[in-house]
Recover the amino acids of this structure.
């Protein structure tokens, strides 16, 4: 993507299961990459009193409705519009040594979260997508040592967190099939049937 500031940019998304290591990886990327900003999905949780209680008796934290996804998309769009301005307003150093941003500067945004790939307006903004997963036992073990702003009530992991993870992962994989078909038909244009028109806007190669 090309930003309003004239600098090249790329939005890299780092999604996956709770306690899969997303934040750890993101922190390492920030250290290693110059001009790197980050957006954490956890910062977009709605206040506790707006989180619905399900028939199972648990507050439904692990669903899209518990997050202000519109605000998250606006934040990512603000970076796309002007990564230099975004970096400066978020305390990220912009290319040490150079006073004026150069058109050669590469800016990177890492978007990190547990529910990134089930909200189409957000998915459309990513250049690269990564998914971190860990097996059930390891995930449960790590989660049991974690303290969130609202602590997990007993039974939340098996009653809500893991079932929602499986549900969303399945949704993502089912949706992903259309993406793969689309890119396949781009690569072999003329030889295979084109993907449906409604997928086109999601593909950078089609813009
Ligand atoms: N590669 C790894 N191997 C083992 N443990 C890890 C690894 N990455 C992260 N962890 C541990 O897993 C827990 C969750 O990591 P975190 O990065 O906060 O996950 P997430 O952001 O996906 O919820 C932390 O205790 C962290 O130290
Ligand atoms: N940050 C918060 O306000 C808050 C509150 C309650 C639960 N959570 C949990 O955060 C998890 C997602 O974050 P991680 O991917 O960092 O674990 C969800 O599974 C959710 O249950 C977060």
């Amino acid at each position: 993507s090309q930003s309003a500031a004239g600098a090249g940019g790329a939005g890299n998304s780092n999604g996956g299961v709770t306690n899969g290591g997303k934040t750890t990886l993101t922190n390492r990327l920030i250290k290693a990459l110059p001009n790197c900003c980050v957006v954490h999905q956890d910062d977009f949780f709605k206040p506790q009193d707006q989180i619905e209680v399900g028939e199972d008796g648990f507050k439904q934290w692990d669903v899209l409705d518990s997050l202000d996804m519109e605000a998250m998309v606006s934040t990512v769009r603000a970076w796309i519009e002007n990564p230099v301005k975004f970096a400066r307003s978020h305390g990220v150093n912009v290319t040490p040594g150079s006073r004026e941003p150069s058109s050669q500067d590469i800016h990177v945004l890492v978007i990190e979260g547990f529910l990134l790939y089930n909200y189409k307006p957000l998915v459309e903004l990513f250049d690269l997508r990564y998914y971190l997963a860990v097996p059930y036992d390891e995930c449960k073990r790590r989660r049991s040592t974690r303290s969130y702003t609202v602590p997990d009530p007993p039974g939340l992991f098996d009653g809500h967190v893991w079932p929602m993870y499986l549900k969303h992962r399945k949704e993502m994989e089912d949706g992903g099939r259309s993406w793969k078909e689309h890119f396949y038909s781009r690569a072999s244009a003329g030889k295979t049937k084109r993907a449906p028109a409604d997928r086109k806007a999601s593909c950078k190669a089609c813009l």
The pocket of beta-nicotinamide ribose monophosphate (ligand 2) is lined by residues 18-19, 22, 42, 45, 61-62, 114, 148-150, 161 (CB under 6 Å). The two ends are 11 Å apart (CA to CA). Confidence is low (pLDDT under 50) at residues 1-7, 182-207. Residues 156-187 form the longest helix (32 residues).
